[in-house]
Amino acid sequence: MDGRACRRLGIGSKTAGSASGGVPPLGYRVQDHKLVIVDGEAELVRAIFRRYTELGSVRLLKAEFDAQGRNSKSWTSVAGRVIGAKPFSRGALYLMLRNRTYRGEIVHKGQSHPSEHPPIIDPLLWDAVQIRLAGNTAERNAGTRSHQPSLLAGMLFDADGNRMTPTHAVKKDTRYHYYVSRPLITQDQRESATALRIPAEEIEHLVTSRVRQWLLDPGGIYQATRLADRQLSAGSSRAPGKSARAGPSCPEHDSVPF
Questions:
Q1: How many Å apart are CA 24 and CA 46, to the nearest integer?
Q2: Which domains does the chain have, with CATH numbers?
Q3: Residue 246, phi then psi, degrees to nearest 5
């Protein structure tokens, strides 16, 4: 957008792709009063957009970046104090995913316009992210997510003791829920000998069925509580929560197709 068009729209020079103060978004710096790309930061921005399209959840995206030690932009104030360089908040990630600056645009009075600064995100990736954001917003507004809680969140572990995280995938407009070993998310690994990706409906049905049977058996409850008392008395060194691993200790485990 040239200066004449900017004046016609009433857009100041700062919003037309140049900068006269403040901190530029992650991925940019100010040079000669204009926004220019910082390559290292731009790669981080692209990673945020790409991983969101794969995970479909800002919560999971934040968890992954926290585990990898990826932090927000840092800058030095006039007083010489370093600001930023902290873990991304969920709110900051939402704002980034909707920031049209990354498309090389500006927003003025609710309308977006082409700007002078170069884009970081290509149109295809931008559109894919916006579609996922809109779909998740529609689900929250309709309350559909509340009908499908992750019943075993925080209670499942794989054979190596890695916590299994609730996630989902969409295939042909159908949402499929899973519990996934954390390394498959945080380390961007493919399937391995120990990592698991379990259909949520099947494992939740298996666990709730076993709990229901247990509650209907007073003798089983008594034996379980006695066993727990003996373990506590012996000072068991087992880590809290890892007794709920999704592993071979469950007799019906082999019947669940993982």
A1: 16
A2: 3-142 (3.90.1750.20), 164-255 (no CATH)
A3: -85, 85
